[in-house]
Amino acid sequence: MAEKTAPIATEPQRGGRSREITRARERHLRPPVDIYETSEGLVLVADLPGVTKETLRVDVDGDLLTISGKAGHIAPGDAIYREYELANFYRQFELGDEVDRDKITAELKQGVLTLKLPKAERVKPKQIEVKVG
Amino acid sequence: MANWDPWREIDELRREIDRAFEDFGLQMEPRFRAAFLPGRMARGYPLVNLQEDREHLYVEAMVPGVDPNALKLTVVHNSLTISGEKKGPPSEVKAESFHREERAAGKFVRSITLPVEIDDQNVKAEFKNGLLLVTLPKAEKAKPKQINVQVS
């Protein structure tokens, strides 16, 4: 699963959503992800602390998978010491043909998003029986 | 001439080294640093923000994917210790199946020295969408008091 290697569209972007590469770095946070393969397909796990189900968006537009979410601090009062800022999370990935777009499922739990990207039937590994003639 | 204390010298050196590495971390990822790498940088995990109002101190920590039931918080005097474990991907996933592995996992422990004495009987903690909020009431004697200025 490649990232940020999506060619720039020659036609105008649908929905007016900008691509990650054209965004200023400090305007959004890039969530760290794990991507691994199982026999069923790909699993993408992203850390999105502070993001709720209501503010999370997962979009698939053609080959482009976009994860975006708004996160805010929960502590009241005045800041006296800070180690991190929570801004909007944003990250894009390019999907291969083997992912079945209609069967993608998403689950958000304890600030972690798990996306299951199943392989299309036709690309699942099949064992070919060898006939002895 | 001031007393020469070798222990103090060593302490100074240690602090300098710490500072050097801190800067290094900052350069790599200005905002996140090692926020999500408990296993690789155990001492700096989780990242915390400290807030205050008149009555309370608030510690907000970024702990996505950490089981709230496995989080352990202890308060001694004015130091707060957070420990727990961030679970990694299921163990049956083979190393060669990974396309990307950026979320390190592991056990962590971090102690934070709070700037004021706190009332350790009434500390509350809440876990919300991967963020931990610890509410620590300030000890009676640490609360700010207004002093009236007498005009004579």
CATH architecture label of chain A: Sandwich
Give the overall pLDDT of chain B as a whole number: 81
Number of strands of chain B: 8
The neighbouring-strand order within the major sheet of chain A is: 1-7-5-4
Q: Structural class given helices, strands, pairing of chain A?
A: mainly beta
CATH fold field value of chain A: Immunoglobulin-like
The CATH class of chain A is identified as: Mainly Beta
Q: What is the number of independent domains of chain A? A: 1
Query: Low-confidence parts of chain B, pLDDT < 50 over ≥5 residues?
Result: 25-42
Number of strands of chain A: 9
Taken from the alpha-carbon principal axes, the silhouette of chain B is flat
Mean pLDDT of chain A: 81
Q: Output the helix-strand order of chain A.
A: EEEEEEEEE
Binned, the helix content of chain B reads: 10-25%
CATH fold-level name of the domain at 33-91 and 102-141 in chain B: Immunoglobulin-like
Short description:
The complex is a heterodimer of chains A (133) and B (152). Chain A is mainly β. Chain A is 0% helix and 42% strand.
Task: Describe this structure as you would to a colleague.
- The complex is a heterodimer of chains A (133) and B (152).
- Chain A is mainly beta and 133 residues long.
- Chain A is 0% helix and 42% strand.
- Chain A has no helices and 9 strands.
- In chain A, the strands form 2 sheets. Chain A has a 4-stranded mixed β-sheet, with no helix packed on it. A 4-stranded antiparallel β-sheet of chain A has the order 2-3-9-8, with no helix packed on it.
- By secondary structure, chain B is α+β, with helices and mostly antiparallel strands.
- Chain B has a domain at 33-91 and 102-141: Immunoglobulin-like (Sandwich).
- Helices cover 15% and strands 32% of the residues of chain B.
- Chain B is built from 1 helix and 8 strands.
- In chain B, the strands form 2 sheets. Chain B has a 4-stranded antiparallel β-sheet, with no helix packed on it. A 3-stranded antiparallel β-sheet of chain B has the order 3-4-6, with no helix packed on it.
- In chain B, strand 3 and strand 4 form a beta hairpin.
- Chain B is flat.
- Residues 25-42 of chain B have low confidence and may be disordered.
- The A-B interface holds A 1, 26, 29-30, 32-38, 42-43, 45-52, 73-87, 110-112 and B 31-33, 35-36, 47-53, 56, 58-60, 62-68, 89, 93, 97-103, 115, 126-131, 133.
